[in-house]
């Protein structure tokens, strides 16, 4: 088995030469397995099939897939087709498009396109590592000793390299010795919270409990939750945010209960071409994800199911967006685009 550590820390994605290595997130928390991705098609398919998840990690993988395409494609036309194939894997994730465009633009006219492509993809990963720590430090300033914190989906080290996005403030606050407790939404239908966020928090020894998605309002009413942190897959120029399905509900509940609701995401998640959330494409996934858990049927097999993967939280429900440039009011996020 290939190494899963880097500087004595596990990491969700890395490369050796032209081969990309990832932790298969579909196997967590029960098995820790590494998958080798040797072509741009296999890397793009890993994104599509959700072997890797989280805006940042999707972006890094897409950057590496674009670099693999430079190594594999012999004509400009083939390269453009490869780019479109990669970008079709998860249409809502802005970091994916940021990474493919960056690698493509930096490499296509370089003297050694293949070498420059992989260097550019490495740069995307290294910048995520740097920015996630900065976001964590900004966000930790909002966390007081004794806070209860709600998260939704997974936005930790599996999702963005380094410290994650929404979990970064939690990691830093824990490092600072603050007494905190994390309420982890299970995040149906793929259970990213119950399986991935909870696994990460357990690895770090951070006190937490998994709660059903429907229980967040109850714990808010009980005054157990003091602040909410979520990640983002795309941020429109007016401050509307697309994130995992169910985020909008949590934002509305937080507003009703006067609880601060913060989005944590790097500037690469901002889509400067998107005026508002109504223009963000929402990925629709298979109904089997709703009707089954780990291939075990949990719903009436004769019924149809609807499965939007994301929803849009309007800017008016967001207390602030934590980026590597600071904590920005949603209505001012366009200044960073």
Shape label: globular
The number of distinct helices, counting runs of at least 4 residues, comes to 10
**Number of individual domains:** 2
Strand content: 15-25%
Return the CATH topology of the largest domain: Rossmann fold
H and E string: EEEEEHHHHHEHEHEHEEEHEHEEEEE
Q: Superfamily at the CATH H level of the largest domain?
A: Translation initiation factor eif-2b, domain 2
Main beta-sheet strand count, sense and barrel state: 7 strands, mixed
Number of strands: 17
What class would the helix/strand composition place it in?
A: alpha/beta
Highest-level CATH class of the largest domain:
Alpha Beta
Strand order, largest beta sheet:
8-7-6-9-12-16-17
Helix content: 25-40%
Assembly level: single chain
Low-confidence stretches: 1-8
